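Q: Sequence in, structure out?
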Amino acid sequence: MSDLTRRSFLQSAALSSLALAVNNPSFAASKFDTRTTGSIEQIDIYHLAHLDIGYTDQPAVAREMQRRYVNLAVDACRRTASGPAGERFHWTTESTIPVLDWWNAAPPDRRAEFLRVVQDRQIDVAALPCNNTPYMSEEEWAAAVSWLPEDLWKAVRPRIAIQDDVNGFPRAGALKLLDRGITHVLTGINGDTDAPFPAPKPFWWKMPDGRRVFVYLAQQYGEAYDLLGQDDWRLWDSPSAGNPFARPPRPGEIFRSDEESVRKAHGLCLERIAKIEATYPFPRLIASVTDQWRWDNDPPFPPLASFIAAWNRLGLKPALRFITATQAVLEFEQTYGAQLPVYQGEWTDWWANGAASIPRELAASRLAKRYLRAARSEAWGPYDAAWQAGANPMWRDLVLFDEHTYDSADSVLLPYSYETLGEEAQKALYAYRAMGEAQLLLGSRMRARLDDEPEGLYVGNPTPSPMTGWVRFPKRSVRSAFRSLKAGTTLTPVYFDKVSDRILATQFPAPPDAQPPKEPAVVRFWVQDLAPHSVRQYQFADSEASELSAPPAQAEVEVDEHGWPKSATWLGMTRPLFLSGFGDFLAVEGHAPRRPDLTNLLGHRADQKAAEQTRKLLEQIPATADGPVEIKQTPFTTIYSQTLHHPRLNYLVRCLELWKGEPRARLSVQLYRISSTDPENLYLSFQLPSGDELPVLSSGGTPFVPFQDQLGDTCRSFFAIDGWADYKTPDGEWLWVTRDAPLVTIGGPYELKLDTREAGVPGMVSALIFTNFWDTNFAADSHGEMEFQFDLVWKKKIDDPAAVAETLMAEPAVLINPEAREDPLVQKDLWRP
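A: Exactly. Output:
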């Protein structure tokens, strides 16, 4: 900072101190602190409750308590509103969910009181609904920044966003905030993993489109409690709100405002602040205080205002200012913003691995997103405001699912307790409810569009790229006999498969104890290049259709000793589509005296000693072949099926389907994880012949190149992605797509790397399909049957990888119309908004 700026600040601080002395005789008469060293002259204190939808309490309880905290904050502000400026209570609402929950339950007079304290700058409202993970889609970010009704948004005028606890923040979220006029972000990152830079640190964050966000990277959201010289008061970390043996602190138990207590706190503050001053050059520090009941989901503590006022009356330095986060951040940027460095890159998240502890629920959330996108397709006609209004609650459920808490604080210690299971059930409900309602929305859109069409079978492509592949439907959904499908004058052959029509899959065998159907249950037929956002009509025909011509270009496939493909090369390719090890399964088991030992060691390991230390705690267990590969030929594809053996699984079956007419592969994997709470990471790995090229990944619709396009010291061990990795090379473009498991590593399993900051072998992309390495906050024992699908295509050039990936992940939408016409009342009341 310039000398002029510093002198200006010090002059302002001196005038403020003089005014305080004149207006407060007790201040003037007290012993004046003569501290002259140290860069920090003022600490701006903001008070909040960190919103954790779970962890301390089940989600419904956490939200109810946070709603009550808004009530308490309003009362505390009103009680001090007429007092001197330095003695008024202030409250920052970290998130908009509690604000809207409170607003919806409050009577008009109470709402008016709330708006008054907001206008008086005693309460402010930050712009995001909760603290989120990078699994959020672009649509979820749009829902997040529009959580409050527009009239309430305008009334409270959010000016900043807060992302606490979570150590990542996707640029997709920052871009959506900028679109809403929010240009400032405040973070209070948990100290258990690396932040982009050592905190506290203010900086400018440049977006891909050139716009900038001011970021104040503060210490963890509750650090100011310790900074202000307070001793640990909590009995234990995270008691539930209904626990009768733990409670919030009462007046006089923390933040005592008598002179002896304040001076003691000041002495401790000077010791603790010296560590910050060693690397922090600014005279003003921004710090957050939470209550000490749990740190998370804690209420306002009204006596904090008296403590701060007493501190200032004694003339202690640094001076304290009790304000809202918004005022602190905006004033800091206005004063020092021109002097700050500018950084750019994706802000990746170390906590992204938590979502992979619940792989089925994660897959269900992604299916819900696919249904919602399909429902939005113009194939079903205009998507007007009424349809969008119906979808909004589903997107909000998905935002809540992608919130950063995946289980309770005791999920590892007590994985099968009622509290843990209750948290898991409520978390899962966000995904499953959105999935079910989104499927209904898609079905309603299809029926509203197609019920008036003639008898027949309708196949829709609700995605932005042409669709080629199998279409499947239950045989019993057609009440008459048929032997082919007719589109115009062309007959299309159909195939009847003896598999469950509730699964609609041909790759996997029936479960070990299940009896396969005696009669064909599923019908399948092939569609070629079904246009984007289009519907194709077929009629059921009695005639037998001749076999369609097989594509002329077939792959040259090399297999291993068991018959599993090691590589496949199509005409026109100079490299194969994939290399040996495509779809291999690996478990990395952790053996440590304490689970946190694994968490602490599996961060950045830039030195050889740390890597060797980690390896001693890990065991690699690959799956092995359990019999020969079965091969099935269809007119358009070849399917390789193989059973693998692994000690952590009851069974594992993988099926690789290779398209004959284009360089394309689909791997489907079905496995059954045996119950265990021991720490392990489960991987499915894919080796691509892409050389040294790094892929383009995407988070929330915003692309980035891992290891290169990242902000500071952010996570390079794994990446939460939208579902695809695009490798652009001089020999063509490889697009790898994961439908269900969006947590990936580049260069192989991250635990086995010498340095996670380096990509290693860029063409090795691995899906981390399950992990419980985290020491808290995750589901310790997801077990049972799980299914995953991956696609890989090669083209000379892919103009829009996100659009192609969306199509590869989607299924054709099928609807069957009978000869009988629908009653208009049914159409109106069942299928239209």
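The chain is about 30% helix and 25% strand.
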